[in-house]
């Protein structure tokens, strides 16, 4: 083993560190901190023992990563879960691959990032709550405010008193400005998020969307629509840019709200497939007219139309959604029947090497 360090220089092995001999397929060194983290006593730790610690969802992910490292791919590190002493722990591994005529070793450091991941999940849960509330507020406020504008315009036709007419017109302008502000804020958040570079990480996308839909479920009494969520598995892990992916969610749910009548149904199903994850966004709303279907993903499309309650649109939302889906190496399509509803399908590949933005 000294050949490696004399050939490649000194490697710091402080803290929770390890040396894995690829040729012998076993760990030849584990620091005391690593043993404590893994709750083991022996240095002679075989990969199949580590495999017993792994969650089923992480086995293929870690195996693919290992094969890519051995093939020479540059990797910054990897996060995965281990079940240690009946507890779920998130582990981050940074590594360095060293090769010589006598074989290959992988050396690196291990961190327990469980607290960090749990904190991020808590923050994201509140972010999802914020997003769903904003989505509902934007939808629910625009409708009544639009009605107020229409009524004020009708009243102004019958007023002869110029002073009162001025008051009514002022009310109408202020309300319209409020509608424009709501539209601008929601559109700006979507546009700014979509213009940033793609930064993907592995997340439990089923759990994330379940939390988002749970917030919408709480608003059923106010939105007058029923929200449904289902998933083929409790946890489904996928490499995505979380902020951008949630913009897909926001936009497709917002569209469903615009074109679904009171007491209608809006559903999301997540299906785990062999090499991809399929998302089905469904509603039983008014559907998309046949003449518009070829244009719904175009920028500033002629297919744009106001919602059932007068909600405005600039015709960019679905175009940006399609772009974000394609940045993830995925595809989007839809099926629609006028008067019966629409289902949008978003399929994202699991392959971590799927093309990124740019």
Describe the protein in words.
This protein has 358 residues and is of the alpha+beta class. The protein folds into 2 domains: 111 residues, 2-Layer Sandwich (Beta-Lactamase), CATH 3.30.450; 234 residues, Heat Shock Protein 90 (2-Layer Sandwich), CATH 3.30.565.10. It contains 10 helices and 12 strands. Strands 2-1-5-4-3 form a 5-stranded antiparallel sheet. A 5-stranded mixed sheet has the order 7-9-10-12-11, covered by helices on one side. Helix 5 runs antiparallel to helix 6, helix 5 packs parallel to helix 7 and helix 9 packs antiparallel against helix 10.
Which properties best describe this structure?
Heat Shock Protein 90, alpha+beta, five-stranded antiparallel beta sheet, 358 residues, 10 helices, disordered C terminus, five-stranded mixed beta sheet, Beta-Lactamase
Our count of domains comes out at 2
Q: What is the CATH topology assignment of the largest domain? A: Heat Shock Protein 90
Gyration radius, rounded: 27 Å
H/I helix tally: 10
Morphology call: elongated
- What ranges have pLDDT less than 50 throughout 5 or more consecutive residues? 1-14, 354-358
**Strand order across the biggest sheet?**
2-1-5-4-3
Structural class label: alpha+beta
What layout of secondary structure does this protein have?
Layout: H1 2-8, E1 17-21, E2 26-30, H2 32-38, H3 47-53, H4 56-70, E3 78-84, E4 87-100, E5 103-112, H5 114-158, H6 162-195, E6 201-204, H7 205-218, H8 220-223, E7 226-231, E8 237-240, H9 242-258, E9 265-272, E10 276-283, H10 317-327, E11 331-337, E12 341-349
Parallel strand pairs: 7-9
Antiparallel strand pairs: 1-2, 1-5, 3-4, 4-5, 6-8, 9-10, 10-12, 11-12
Helix pairs in contact: 5-6, 5-7, 5-9, 9-10
